[in-house]
Amino acid sequence: MNLLEKFQTLIIIAAVGLGLLLGQVSLIEQRAESFIIPFLLLMLYGLFLSIPLGELKKAFLNIKFLGTSAIINFIWTPLLAWGLGAIFLSDHPALWIGFIMLMVTPCTDWYLVFTAIAKGNVSLATSVLPFNLILQVLLLPLYLLIFAGTIETIAMGTLLESVILVLLIPFSFAHLTRFLFKKRKAIFDNKVVPFFAQSQIVFLSLAIIAMFASQGSYLMGNFEVIFILLVPILLYFFLNYFIGRIAARMLNFSYEDSVSLNLTILARNSPVALAIAVTAFPEQPLIALALVIGPLIELPILVLVSQALLVSRRSLKG
Questions:
Q1: What domains are there in the chain, each with its CATH number?
Q2: How many Cβ atoms sit within 10 Å of the Cβ of residue 197?
Q3: Residue 250 contacts by C-beta under 8 Å, 6 or more apart in sequence?
Q4: pLDDT tens digits, residue range 119-136?
Q5: CB 69 within 8 A of CB 136
Q6: Is the pTM for the entire model greater than 0.70?
Q7: Which of 114, 130, 234, 252 is 20 to 30 A (C-alpha) from 157?
């Protein structure tokens, strides 16, 4: 874990604070919005560049693990997110949409760190990473139309335009880069990929600064959003933690594989959802705000989960 990853939560909190501070300057507030999408595109370019798509074949070799994680991530979790939103966020439709967008996108980066901390099967968790990324990119527009469409009307054209802009463009450029460095694989693997992998948190933080600066005056009056989202987010992690534990026990997973399953179905991929939210819902900053607040709650929970899993490992050995 490098220094940036180690202090990721603090960096995001600092970015939120700096954005709010800069947003009090009217000139910055008026122009900050134009920087959000470029920074998010750079962040997603780095994400797609560092995804080992060659590992996709390995994921399909473990049908039991792949099938279990796919069912929980892409069938059970969207239904759970909609249900929790219906109970706790029905009076806040924008937050409900943001909550759904957060919960239907499995993580593609820091869950590997917590898998390693909890002594899980990191190679297995890595092998399903490209599968999760591709499936969430394909299914997110569908989830928005099915679930968010019941909350508020969503224009299909705007949604497709957002997906093309923030996902297909960086994805295509990442693959073009791979092609251009085909004969210089050592430079690509040892220089290019590590640089962009470590820079993702920087670009994400710059996007968050720009977003909060552009909505500084509005967001300063909406800090109660954290408390509105706290209960459904905590319930999501609580329920999915035990769903993962029960599924792993029923399927006789080893401790290492059960850790990989737990972290794969718990950690969420807010940057991808945030990129789409900013472009598809520019008039509703609360949707994006929900996607920024989510990780602030999520990261401490993942720390606790990884420690709880280690405790269960010691009890198994004892």
A1: 3-317 (1.20.1530.20)
A2: 18
A3: none
A4: 888 778 877 877 887 788
A5: no
A6: yes
A7: 130
